[in-house]
Design a protein that fits this description.
This protein is mainly alpha-helical. It has one domain. Helices cover 75% and strands 8% of the residues. Helix 1 runs antiparallel to helix 2. The longest helix has 31 residues.
């Protein structure tokens, strides 16, 4: 399948690379937020709820989409 976009074509490889890079970027962001949360908790003895909210939101979205695809596929 080739999809024409603005005069050049996008094939399956491009779409898979975009999917993988977005997935890796999301995981890296979640790990960074979790690392900062646990650093602040362990080293500084301060709970930063904004880091926790980021990690929790990413986990909820990931599991919701996983369930959606599992139930509708």
């Amino acid at each position: 399948m080739r999809v024409p976009v603005l005069g050049w074509t996008v094939d399956e490889r491009f779409l898979m690379h975009r999917l993988r890079s977005s997935s890796l970027g999301g995981m890296a962001g979640a790990l960074l937020a979790a690392g900062l949360f646990f650093y602040n908790l362990g080293a500084l003895h301060v709970i930063k709820w904004d880091y926790f909210a980021i990690v929790a939101t990413m986990a909820i979205v990931k599991m919701s989409v996983l369930a959606w695809y599992r139930l509708t596929d």
